[in-house]
Design brief:
The chain is an alpha/beta fold and 192 residues long. The chain has one domain: Rossmann fold (3-Layer(aba) Sandwich), CATH 3.40.50.970. 40% of the residues lie in helices and 20% in strands. Helix 7 links the parallel strand 8 and strand 9. Helix 1 packs across helix 2 and helix 1 runs parallel beside helix 7. It is globular and about 40 Å long. Bound molecules: thiamine diphosphate. The site of thiamine diphosphate (TPP) has 17 residues, from helix 2, helix 4 and strand 6.
């Protein structure tokens, strides 16, 4: 990986500190693994185990059902590539309360670091072409930390590519418990 990139875990720690109390945060893949090391809230959806690509669609559903909340999706780049169509669904639905963060590490990190096709894809360009209202690309932790408030508050739907260093040799995320119970808890929290 060329150039200075932030660590994905540091990027997640910064997001954890900056998220609003009413925000829903949906994490998958390496971002989910790192999110689970931090204190959890009822409005967190750790989407593990999961089929790649679906976190964006779940985020869209929550954003549309709860327009007064912000839904923040933390996606892997390989998973983003599996569901590029969701970019058009998000903008087509006018989900202005959705923030999509792609943790671009260039690999399928949680399955052992195989290279994704993402290394030659301009994710920010794809998001602009799909019609996202605000698009960011950040690779330095100090820039992410300084601008995170602007990113979260920008006119939505918001897309940010976070260029992160792959973490080698860190085991993938383990399910934090039965998915049905966790989904029920999230629904209760969303109603609250
Ligand atoms: C549809 C589908 N294909 C394959 C897998 C197996 N798999 C689980 S995680 C993963 C890699 C995810 O890569 P990425 O989205 O880039 O996230 P990262 O691990 O780099 O954070 C793969 C291939 C899966 N869960 N779903």
């Amino acid at each position: 990986m060329s150039g200075a990139r932030m660590s994905g875990r540091d990027a997640i720690v910064a997001l954890h500190a900056a998220r609003g109390a009413r925000d829903v945060v949906i994490t998958t893949m390496a971002p989910a693994r790192d999110w689970m090391t931090l204190p959890q809230q009822p409005l967190d959806l750790v989407f593990v185990p999961s089929a790649m690509g679906h976190a964006t669609s779940i985020g869209l559903g929550i954003a549309l059902a709860q327009p007064e909340r912000r839904a923040i999706v933390c996606n892997g780049d390989g998973s983003m590539l599996m569901n590029l169509g969701s970019l058009a669904s998000i903008t087509g639905a006018g989900a202005s309360n959705l923030v999509l963060l792609v943790f671009e590490n260039g690999v399928y990190e949680v399955t052992g670091g195989q290279r994704t096709a993402g290394t030659h894809v301009d994710f920010a360009g794809l998001a602009r072409a799909a019609g996202f209202a605000s698009v960011f690309e950040l690779s330095k932790l100090e820039d992410w930390t300084a601008r995170i408030g602007d990113v979260l508050a920008a006119r939505g739907p918001v897309f940010a590519v976070l260029k992160v260093e792959p973490a080698a040799g860190v085991p993938g995320p383990k399910s934090p418990g039965p998915a049905r119970e966790r989904a029920r808890r999230l629904m209760d929290a969303l109603r609250g």
